[in-house]
Amino acid sequence: MTQITSTEENFTQLLQKYQKFVEEKLFPRDLELVTTPFFQSVPFLNELRSEAKSLGLFAPHLSKEEGGLGLDLVKFAQVSEILGQSPLGHYIFNCNAPDIGNMELLHLFGSKEQKEQFLYPLQRGEIRSCFAMTEPGHAGSNPIHMSTLAVRDGDEYVINGHKWFTTAADGAAFTIVMAVTNPNADSPYQKASMIIVPLDTAGYSNLRNIPIMGEPGEGYLSHSEVKFENCRVPASYLIGQEGQGFVLAQERLGPGRIHHCMRWIGICERVFDMMCTRAMSRELNPGKPLAEKQTIQHWIAESRASIKASRLMVMDTAQNMQLKGAKAVKEDISTIKFFVADVLMQVIDRAIQVHGALGITDDTLLSFWYRHERGARIYDGPDEVHKSSLARSILKKYSS
Amino acid sequence: MTQITSTEENFTQLLQKYQKFVEEKLFPRDLELVTTPFFQSVPFLNELRSEAKSLGLFAPHLSKEEGGLGLDLVKFAQVSEILGQSPLGHYIFNCNAPDIGNMELLHLFGSKEQKEQFLYPLQRGEIRSCFAMTEPGHAGSNPIHMSTLAVRDGDEYVINGHKWFTTAADGAAFTIVMAVTNPNADSPYQKASMIIVPLDTAGYSNLRNIPIMGEPGEGYLSHSEVKFENCRVPASYLIGQEGQGFVLAQERLGPGRIHHCMRWIGICERVFDMMCTRAMSRELNPGKPLAEKQTIQHWIAESRASIKASRLMVMDTAQNMQLKGAKAVKEDISTIKFFVADVLMQVIDRAIQVHGALGITDDTLLSFWYRHERGARIYDGPDEVHKSSLARSILKKYSS
Amino acid sequence: MTQITSTEENFTQLLQKYQKFVEEKLFPRDLELVTTPFFQSVPFLNELRSEAKSLGLFAPHLSKEEGGLGLDLVKFAQVSEILGQSPLGHYIFNCNAPDIGNMELLHLFGSKEQKEQFLYPLQRGEIRSCFAMTEPGHAGSNPIHMSTLAVRDGDEYVINGHKWFTTAADGAAFTIVMAVTNPNADSPYQKASMIIVPLDTAGYSNLRNIPIMGEPGEGYLSHSEVKFENCRVPASYLIGQEGQGFVLAQERLGPGRIHHCMRWIGICERVFDMMCTRAMSRELNPGKPLAEKQTIQHWIAESRASIKASRLMVMDTAQNMQLKGAKAVKEDISTIKFFVADVLMQVIDRAIQVHGALGITDDTLLSFWYRHERGARIYDGPDEVHKSSLARSILKKYSS
Amino acid sequence: MTQITSTEENFTQLLQKYQKFVEEKLFPRDLELVTTPFFQSVPFLNELRSEAKSLGLFAPHLSKEEGGLGLDLVKFAQVSEILGQSPLGHYIFNCNAPDIGNMELLHLFGSKEQKEQFLYPLQRGEIRSCFAMTEPGHAGSNPIHMSTLAVRDGDEYVINGHKWFTTAADGAAFTIVMAVTNPNADSPYQKASMIIVPLDTAGYSNLRNIPIMGEPGEGYLSHSEVKFENCRVPASYLIGQEGQGFVLAQERLGPGRIHHCMRWIGICERVFDMMCTRAMSRELNPGKPLAEKQTIQHWIAESRASIKASRLMVMDTAQNMQLKGAKAVKEDISTIKFFVADVLMQVIDRAIQVHGALGITDDTLLSFWYRHERGARIYDGPDEVHKSSLARSILKKYSS
C-alpha cells in the first residue's frame, strides 16, 4: 500500500489519518459507489464529507482561513496519492478536479465579488463547478483553434459555442468557459478569455452526458456536451483580463497535473496491492499460487519499479514547482504527464491479466479504472504532444 | 478494409456478397445495436437473419444438407474475418460462439436424439445455447481442477456445481456443461464429461448476468454465473462417452480458435479503417491532418504489418488443420491465440489514441471493442499459458 | 532448425542438400571463419566453393546457361534462408550481396561488353565486386541528395566523389557507382546514373576499411570509405541510360530485400536453435535447466511466433513479386524490411540473454550477429523511413 | 550534459571541477583510447592520473587519510555519474571496478598486513587488482554452485579451480578469489571464502583474455579465463572468516551497484547529448534536420524521462543505503539494477538509430558502449534474477 515517507512527524501523522480514513471508510464501499448512479450516492457521500470535516481533514489544499489545512503543493501531493487509491477519495475531501482547479483559479485571480458568489460556496462543498474548454470541432491537442465566441455587449458578454468533455457539468452550479474575446489579437495565445457562466443562465444547455466506455455518466461522474446560445453573463464574470485565457489555463494546469499524477500513483498502489493479493491467493494447483510464475513476478517487479520512478519524478517536480514556480518546471510537467499515464495503464493492464476472467468483470475496481483512466493518455494534452513539446524544448539548447 | 484474396472466382464472389451485406446492412446500425439492450434488438436482428437466409448466406459453416453453405475451414475462416468487422456479424449468420462450437460438437458426437432435440433447432436459428465450463473457484487457465459433479443415478445424472462466464446463457434453451463424472480416473484429463442441460431443468439457476467492463449484459451479449443444484437430466444427454470431456473440448476449441482469430482480424481491419479515416480528417491546423505526424504514420504501418502477419499465420494454421487435423497444428493454435490477441489490443489502443477524446466515448465502436476484447488475452486460455505450452512443446525436441 | 516446407519433391531434395552442406561443412567452421581475417580464409573458402560447384549447388540464382540452378525468386528465397544460417553461407554459393545485386543488374541491363568483361567472371566466382552509393555528407535515408559527379568528357566519364559503406570494396575488381550525371534534370530521381569503375582505375582510392562494431574489416567482410578523384572510365561503362540510376537501384533493391529478409530468417533460426539448446543444457540447480523458467519459455514462444510471421510475410511478398512484379509489392517490401529487421534483433538479443556471460563473448556466433546485424535496421532504408513510406501509401486511399 | 544538482556550494564546485576535467581532458581523447590496445595507452593514462592527483581529484571515494577526498556514498555517486561519461573516467581517478570494490573490501575487512601489502599500493594507483568469482561450469545467476576449492594445508590454502570473466586480470598484481572452503556447511551461503592470490603465485595461469563483442581485450580492458592449479597462498590471505564469502560479496556488491548505475547514467547523458547533437545537425533536406521528425523527438523525450527516473531512483537508493545500511535497501538495489540497465541499452540503441550508418562504425563511442554495456543486463546478476528476487521479497508481505 502507499508508502508514507515524510520525515516531519506531524505531517506523517496527518498522512496516516488520511490513509486510515481511506482504508476504513472508502475501501469497503468504493466498488459499490462507482457502480451506483451518482445522485443516488449523494446522501452517503455527504455523510462522509461531514465526517471528513469533523476530523479536520476536509479541503487539505485550502489555507486555514478558507477552512482547509493549508498544505503546500509538496504536502498536498502526498495526500493526493492517498486519496487517489479510492475513486471518490478526492471528492470526499472537496479537492477533486475540476473543482480544485477552479478554486485555485478564483483564489488567485477572482475578484472579491466572484469569490463571494462562486468560490466560497465551492470551498464549503455546497456547490459543484465545471470547466468548459474542449470543442468537438477542433483537436484538443492544439487548443489555439477554438470557435466559441464571447462578444462584449454593454455590461455583458454574449457567449455562443459548443463544448464537450465538460467534466461534472451535470448538476454543477457554474462553469468557467474558455471563449475567444479578442479574435484579432496578435498571438493566437492572446485571443481567449475565461468567463464564469452560472448554469441556470438562459441559452446554456447540457446536450447530453456523453456515454464513455460503457457508462452513461451522471452528476459528478459525467462528461457533458454543452451548448452556449446567446448566453448572456455580466462582464464582471470575466476572470482576470481579456485575452488572458491561456495564461490562466497554464496556471490552472501546472499544479493540476501534479494532482492528477499523484492520484494516478494512488490508483497504481491500490491496483498493485490487488495484483499481489490475487497472485498469492489464486492457486493453479493446490499449494501453487500464481505468484510462483516468473512472468507474474516480473510484472510485479516492473510495476513496483515504475511506480517508484513515477513517485520520485512527480515529487521532484512538485518540489521544484514550489521553489521556482510553474514556468521553471515546464519540461518536468510534460515528462510526468506522459511517463505516469503510461505506467498507470501498464499496471492496470497487468493486474487485470493476473485476475484472469475476474479482472474484466465489474466485481473489482480494475474494470472501472481500465475504462476511466484510458483517458489519462489523452486529456490534459495527449502524451504524444507532451513528448514532442519536451523534445523541442531540449533541442533548443542544441541549435547553433 | 478487409482484403478479399481467394483465387477461386465463385468463392470470391461469395466473399464479396458477405462484405456487401456487412457494409450495407450492419455498419450503419452496429453502433446502435451494441448500445441497446439485446432483447430490444431481437426483432431487427431476426429481420437481418431472414434476409441472410433469403440471400443464401446463412450458416456458412454448415453442410448444405443442414441448411448451410458447406464451406470448409479455410473458406469459413475468410468469411469469419468479414463478419468480424461488425460486432453482431456472426450472430446474424448463425455462426457465432458459443453456438457454433456446440453445433460442431453435436454434429460430430451427438446421438440421433440429441441432434433432433438440440442441434437442428439450433442450426435453424430457432434457439440459442451456451457452454458451462469455467468455475469461479478454480483458475480457468488450469481446467483440470473442477468442482462440478455429475453423479449417475439410475437413468439420470444429478448435477451440482457453480459455473461462471457461461456466455449467452441468458435466454438460451440449453447448455452443455463440463462436469466430473469419473473422479477416480487415472488421468485428470479423463475425469470430466460433457452433458446437455436444458435450461428449464429444475435446479438450474442463472444467478446473474455478470456485469463486465461497465455493461450489465443481456441475452446473447451476456456472461452468466449459473448454479446447478441437484439438477437431473436423462443419462442420454451425455455427449460421447463418460470421461471424454477434455477430448471433446479440444475438438471444440481447435477450429473455435481459428474462428476467433479471424473474427479478431476482422475487428482489426474495421478499426484500422477508422484510424486511417480519422488520421486524414482530423486537422491539427488548417490543412494539416493528424496523418502528417510521423508517430501516427508509424502506428498505421506497424498495425498494417501485424494485421498482415496475423492473417497469414491464421490462414496457414487453418490450411494445415484442414489437411492434417487439429492435433498436428497444436503449436500453431497456441501461436495464433497469443499473437493475434496481442495485435488486436494494440491496434484498438492505437486507434483510440488517434481518435483522442472521441475514442473513449461510446460514440464509436472503439470503446465497445476496447472493453469487450480485453478478454481476448484471457479466454480460451490466457496468453501466458499458451506461450509456455508452445515453448515446452518446442523444447521437447531439445531434450537429450 | 529451418523448416523445409516445399511440396515439390525435387525442390525439397535440393533444399535438403543445401541444409546438409550448411550443417556439415559450415556450422563446424563458421565461428572460426568470422574471427579470422578474411584473406587468410580465402583458400578454405575456395575449397568449399569448389565443393559446392561439384555438387551442383553453386549460384542457385543464376540461370542454367549461366552456370546456375535457375531457381525463381520464390525458390531462391527458401535457399537464401538456409544459407543465412551461416555467416558465409551466401558467399560460398556466390549469391552474396553485393555481388548478387550486381549480377542481377548487369544481367538485366548490362551491354554485351559489360557482361563479357564484368558479369561472367563474377558469375564464375573469379572476381568480387561492390556498389558505391551512400555518401558520408548526406543522410542515406534520403538518397536524392548526392554530391558525387560524373561528367562526360569525350568518350569518358570523369568521376569525382566521396562514398562510404561500400561493402566488400577491399579486394573487389570493380564497383558500380551512383553518380550525378544530369544535375539539371527535372526530377531529383532522374539526376543520377550507374557507372562501372574497375578498382584499378587511376584516381580511385580506398581510404580505409571502416572499423565497424569493433572489427577492422577485411576483404569481403569490409565496408570501405572510398574516393574518386578525376577517375576516368569509358563512357561505355554506363549501365542503361543516363539518369536511370534510381530506376535501376529500385530494380536492384526489390529482390535484394527479399534475399536479405530470408537471410535474416536463417540467422533467426540458427540463433533460435542455440537459444533452445542452451536453455535445456544450462542448469540453475542440478536437474533444473533454464528452460523451466517461464520468462525463457515466453522468449522462445514469442521468438517462434515472430519468426513464423516473418517467413510467411516474406514468402507471400516473394510470390506476389514473382507474379506481379516489384512495383505491385512496394508496400509489402517496406513491410518486411522493418518487420523482419526488428524480429531479427529481438531474437538475437533474447538468445544472448539466455546465454548469460557466454552470450557476450566471441565464443559463439551471437556476438557476431548482434554486432553485424544491428545495421539491418539502418541499411537499405532505415525502418522509420519504410514505416512512413508504407503509411503514406496506405493513407493515399483515404484522401478525399 | 550531466546536470549538477547539489545544493552545497563547495561540493557543487567540486563536481564542476570533475566535469571540466572530463570534458577537457577525456572527451577529446576517449574514442582514441578505446580503440587503442590498453598497454599502449598506459603512459598517457598515467599522465592524466598525475594531473588528477595534482588537482586534488584523485580517489574521491577514499578517506582523506588514505589519499582521497572522503566523499560519502551519495556524493561519490554524483561524481561517478560525471566520470561515467567517458569510458576511462573512473580509471583515471582510481575508482574503477573491480579495484574500487576490492579497496572497499580490504578497507573494511582486511587485516593490517593485507592492507599494507595489497590495499595501500592499490590506493596509490601503483598496482591493479581483480576479482575471480564466476565459473564457466555454473550459471553465474545462481552463485551458490561453485567448483573452486581452497583446502587448508598447514599454514596455506591450496586452491584449485577454473574461473572466467575475471575482469582486468591481465596485468593485475593480485586477485581476490571466491572458493569453497567449507563444503559441508549447513547453508550453501556459508561454504565459500574470499582469499587473496598474488598473480605471480605458482599454479595460477591466465588462460586467455576472453574476446568479447569483437575485441580481444587487453590489460585493464580485459576479462580473463584463469586457472588455479594447486595454487598455494598463506592462510593469512583469507579475508575475514572462513565461510564469509557471500556475506562479504554482498557488502562489496551493494555500493558497487550504486557506482555501476551512476556510471551507466553518465553514459546515458553522453549518449543523449550525442543523439541531440546529431538530430540537429543531420539534414534530411536542406534546412530540415532529423530533429523535426516526431519519432526522433519522442525518442529524445522518452530517453530524457527515463534517464531522469533512473537518476532519482539511484540517488534515492544511495541516500537510504547511507542512512540505513545496505540490507535495508536490498529491494531498491535490485530495482535500480534492472531498471537502469534497461534504460541504458534503450538510450544507446536510439542514439545509434539517430546516427544512421555512422552509429554502427567505430567512429563514435556508440559502438563501444553498445557492445561493452550489453553485459550490463547480465553481470552483477541478470535482470531476470533481480526482478524475481524483488517480487518474491514484495510478495512475502502478502503471505497469510
Structure description:
Chains A, B, C, D: It comes from Algoriphagus namhaensis. Four copies of one chain form a homotetramer. Chain A contains 13 helices and ten strands. In chain A, a hairpin with a 2-residue loop joins β2 and β3 (156-167). The first copy, chain A, has 400 residues and is an alpha+beta fold. The radius of gyration of chain A is 22 Å and the shape is globular. Chain A has a four-stranded mixed β-sheet, covered by helices on one side. A four-stranded antiparallel β-sheet of chain A has the order 2-3-7-6, with no helix packed on it. In chain A, strands 9-10 form a two-stranded antiparallel ribbon. The first copy, chain A, has helices spanning 9-26, 30-34, 38-54, 73-84, 89-92, 99-109, 112-123, 245-281, 294-324, 330-355, 357-360, 366-372, 383-396, and strands at 129-132, 149-153, 156-167, 174-180, 192-198, 204-209, 223-234, 238-239, 283-285, 288-289. Chain A folds into three domains: 9-102, Butyryl-Coa Dehydrogenase, subunit A, domain 1, CATH 1.10.540.10; 129-239, Butyryl-CoA Dehydrogenase, subunit A, domain 2 (Beta Barrel); 246-396, Butyryl-CoA Dehydrogenase, subunit A, domain 3 (Up-down Bundle), CATH 1.20.140.
